[in-house]
Amino acid sequence: MMENTGTGGFFPAAKGRDGMEIGTKQAPFPRGAGVLLPVFSLPSPQGIGTFGREARRFADFLRAAGQSWWQVLPLGPTGFGDSPYQSFSAFAGNPYFIDPGLLAGEGLLSREEAGGSGRGPARVDYAALYRDRFPLLRKAFARAGGADAGARRAFCAENAGWLEGYSLFMALKTHFGGREWLAWPEDIRLRRPAAVERYRAALRGETEFWKFCQFKFFGQWRRLKAYANARGIRIIGDLPLYVSLDSADVWTHPELFQLDEGRRPVRVAGVPPDRFSAGGQLWGNPLYDWDAMRGDGFSWWRRRMGAAARLYDAVRIDHFIGIVRYYAVPRGSKTAEGGEWRRGPGEELIRALAAASPGAGVIAEDLGCAVPEVEALREAAGYPGMKVLEYAFDSGGGNPNLPCHYAPGCVVYTGTHDNETLAGFFRRAPRETVRFARAYLHVRFRRQLPAACVRAACASAADTAIIPMQDWLGLGNGARINRPATVGGNWRWRLRPGRLNARLAARMRGLCGLYGRLPAEEKTEKEK
Fold it and tell me: Rounded to the nearest 5 degrees, what angle is found at the Cα of 33, between the Cα atoms of 27 and 38?
């Protein structure tokens, strides 16, 4: 958890321009830069990035490159579509990120078992991971025996509020062949007490396995984060606003969601037609029953934000607009076009989150249509909003994503995980967009635009500049992370070994030094 050192902590005195009172206000982020790279994209011989050696090498690279931040995507166990935004739990970690090499170092796996398959594939194969990784983790669990028994008991006790429900949920999913909980027998689907106790007793060994996975996940993450922090690298996490329908959260707390008597959603989340999809985006997540959450002081959200504050140094709240107003689509709709906007909890929730985690720095993902109430709430809380350079060049000099309009108190991205890479974007962009971008960025050729955008982001007045690793490398759309409104083929790109070298680090450090973004403790006397 961050301390109140001017790096995102909360300070007293907060009223927005409309007089909205939050009670505390977040301090500005210091001027700096960072890299967006999902953990699953790290190199490794394991088929997916892990918390092992390559993650530490990446932290070392970021330090050498003069960076202050490493931004990751959600770390939860992936469900539908392999998406980190459709997780089986809002609190649990993804077992795929547990590093087998570190387990071998504990004697729980042999070096041969942990060795993987050489360099590893260029893209994540989730079907292969599902087939191969869990048998490996079960071997480690079987061999663990009483090792770390005291630490494991303490971990389970500290996290019992979510871990008991999650471990039983995953044991039941395994027992029922991976089916979503809405397809389980009625007695356990509705969590009738006798059924819960019966299955808990019958599946005790399986629930212990899932607790073991979480114990190892959080232990390895804690050590990796400490390693990065010791090198001046802080972690920005990603907090999805919504949770997956097929999750332990909805199964264990149905009263907190807009469900019918059969526990099926009455309406689901999405967004209306936008630049990504003419029919809107139909996410399908269950919507919160904000009145029910308000009734107990938003305790579930306070626990969730507290957990995120322990996991990261700062948190990006995805789809921040949904806190002020949310888009509700009737269940069974084929597109999101028939939804309607409804009022969210707004400042009530923000006050609760600020009280629950007073040291957590927050970035508000406020992209999409401009809503004055959202801007007022964000300003009152002191949360920096987001600017995206890829959106800057299609509507003339008044576009608010152009760097000439930035002021301190925002975070600039060249693109997000939902965007094309810069190279891919400008390769496909309309001629008018390219012409304007060339004029604005003072370059002659289309091929120069990606590097010019990276420079413009670093040079801007934004407090923080976050550049996806693909854009530093100048990669095309083959390296794209996600295509919104599509299912399948996303969340798979991986960084090939050897792409991060001293030459790239020097280039990144040079830009950060030129534009005053080096970490304060690393600036030369002349720079200071």
Answer: 105
